[in-house]
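Pipeline run #58 for the internal structure catalog. This entry was flagged by the ingest filter as a single-chain record with no existing model, so it goes straight to prediction. Upstream metadata was stripped on purpose; only the residue string is passed forward. Reviewer on rotation: M.T. Logging verbosity set to normal.
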Amino acid sequence: MSEKNKIEQITEKQKEQMPVYVEKWRKIGSKTDRLDFEKTKKIVDDFREIINMSPAPLLIVDNPIEAWVSCVLFEEYKVPLESIKEEMVLVFDGNPKKYQIPRASLPYQTGSYFASVFSFYDYMFECLGVEIEKDLWIKYKKWEATSQIGMIYPLENITVVCEKPIKIHLNENRVLHRDGEPAVEYAGLGDYKIYSLNGVEVPEYLAVTPAEKLDIAKYHEEKNADVKAEFVRKVGIEQFKSLGKILDTYKNYSEEEEPFFYSSQYELWDMEAIFSGLSKAPYLSMVNPTTKIFHFEGVSPSCNTIEDALKERFGGSYYKIKDMA
């Protein structure tokens, strides 16, 4: 784009179109249509051309695990194309030939999972009128077409393409979420499923177990802070607190002196009841003022007040926070 055509700002009407493009590409990215062989072959051969690779035979498999196993069988063990699916079944059925399947690598191109990137370019070209050279535009459209298919592994003498999931569940915030079953599920071998709550990948048990049947003692086994937050959100903060006893609460303080205590609803609870062998297990309870998500974080046994816990979290210093931007 020349300097004279440089976009300095966008109009209100153009801003209003942003959600339209987000929704357009959300629908594209979450489609679960089965792939047509001839259409897929044209897309991947065009894609191979723009990455300087010649056309090659196409193998379509059901899920990412199958795709990776197929690549290893073809590339490392020289299994011919016509025998790959048969050998792949053996791998998933006990692996009698003892193929060594290394840890999977990411595909060269993620297909429909790249929809968010294409939404950006689509908006720039169609809504803002950004122009690029013709040959680059042709290459872009060939790249964009990969959003119609699944993950792509373009090997030297074969292209392995993964089908799209058979199920994709998003919540109202357009992030992966499904309480009670997988958020993403593929067909085929390997039982490939992804469990997610509110956009956070979680263990299967946390997604599928009803809230009232979750064992709260498993909470302290989790190491990831986002997973722990989803555990608390699903079970409910009150159910957690019902097993402990309160040590300190924001209500013990003046709202005028400690407004941040009130906006975050800080409380310190002793949760030793869910930990065997501990005489004291203080946990700081708080609500994120922005997202309204409750957090429940362990602090050291020396903490007896909210101030003690915050001082520990702030690395030994205590800051009186009056407000947050």
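catalog note: The mean pLDDT is 90.
catalog note: The longest strand covers residues 282-287.
status: ready for reviewer M.T.
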